[in-house]
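Sample intake sheet
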Amino acid sequence: MAYFTYILKCSDETLYTWITTDLERRIKQHNWEINGWAKYTLARKPVELFYFENFENRSDATKRELEIKKMKRKHKLELIKK
């Protein structure tokens, strides 16, 4: 099973980072198109996928998620541009 660490751009220009096994489903959940929403994005929808990385296991995806969450916004935006 593949895992993805992803960054969303919310309607208020904030960035949201998390992990999933299904990017398409998760984006729909964040936008309240299907059940399974995230509280943070509820008031910030619509969201759009800005960036993602693919991993073979949950552990690596989670480690990368934490690295990204520790980054300053400027560095996240630089990562997105690559």
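Comment: Helices lie at 23-30, 39-42, 58-70, 73-81. Residues 11 and 44 are 5 Å apart (CA to CA).
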